Amino acid sequence: MNLPIILVVGPPRSGTTLLGNLLDLHPEFSTIIEPYYIWDRHFRNSSHDQMSEKDASEPVRRQIRGSFGRYLADIGAERVVDKSPRNSLKIPFIRAVFPEAHFVIILRDPRDTILSIRRQWESVGAAFTTRRHKKLLKERFIIYRRWLAQRPTWRLRLQSVFFELGPPQNWLKGNFLNRIRWQRPFGWGPRFAGWQDVIDRVSLLQFNAYQWVHCARGIIDNLPRLPEARVFTLKYEDLIAAPELWLRRLFSFLGTDLPPSYFETAPPIWADNSQKWPHAFSAEELKTIGPIISRELMALGYEKDESWYQRM
Question: pLDDT of 164-180, one tens digit each?
Fold first, then answer.
């Protein structure tokens, strides 16, 4: 039986959350924010997040499809939307699990994306690597509360908590999921294959650039393999500049219309939330990430050549 699922796919900090929330406002759709506890239930101890169709065994397919099916029954929506940046690294796996899925690909200037990824590492990491400061403990509590609020049903909240905590023997040691995933006190975002050989020999900014590159490459390499009629691609910069135009196109692609009074309840869409990187990065920082991201950056049409960092 077909399961009506829409996958919003893009590198982290590329507008996937904004797009997932915008789709969630439509009465036909319900969005789950990053349900890794569904996708990774059989892969909790995997060393990275990249997956192929070979990983989609029958028990794995049955578990994932069953979880999304139960969610639809619980929530009473017609279609479910999944928003998970990690899915950039596992498109062939997703395709094997959900051959009927529609894909909405959102891309953003990688320099703005990497800037935002670094800020996420710095802000969230501070709250989780410092234990004693009361302000940081409060920030950690706020992060956890926001994290749970993203789970729209109690079933999903319990699933995510138990998946995060792991078996009881881990609790006293503090070996919760993030620490297990990153083999260190803190890490954030998708883990590409071979990340362990990179993270300790480059700067944080360069590692964030590698995170973006592998996610972008996962999309670029697999996009031609997806059925054209089931893929909608847009850029974050276009969406924030003309949201009504692009949302009408998106809903038309999904076979529905923009609801009346839709923008009265829509979250803020800041048209100027782009091109932050020229003022935020130093010339030296740009030179350190330029060679890492230029090939994919040019493939996506954000620059014509490598002079954007070489002339700095």
Answer: 776 666 655 555 667 77
Q: DSSP alpha helices (H): ranges in the chain?
A: 16-24, 36-39, 58-75, 91-97, 110-129, 134-149, 154-165, 177-182, 196-199, 204-222, 236-241, 243-253, 277-280, 283-299, 307-310
Q: Would you say residue 269 lies in a domain? A: no
Q: Are 219 and 10 within 8 A, CB to CB?
A: yes
Is 272 among the domain residues? no
Residue 40, classified by CB atoms within 10 Å of its CB into exposed (0-12), middle (13-18) or buried (19+), is: buried
Q: What pLDDT, on the 0 to 100 scale, is given for residue 145?
A: 62
Cβ-Cβ contacts under 8 Å for 171 (sequence gap 6 or more): 165
Total tally of structural domains belonging to the chain: 2
Residue bearing the bigger pLDDT, 45 or 101: 101
List the CATH number of the domain containing 188.
3.40.50.300
Span 110-136, pLDDT tens digits:
999 999 999 999 887 655 555 555 554
Q: Please give the C-alpha separations between residue 189 and each of 22, 55, 86, 137, 217, in angstroms, as whole numbers.
A: 22, 21, 7, 21, 16
For 43, the domain range is 5-264
* Tally of CB atoms within 10 A around 89: 26
Q: 46: helix, coil or strand?
A: coil
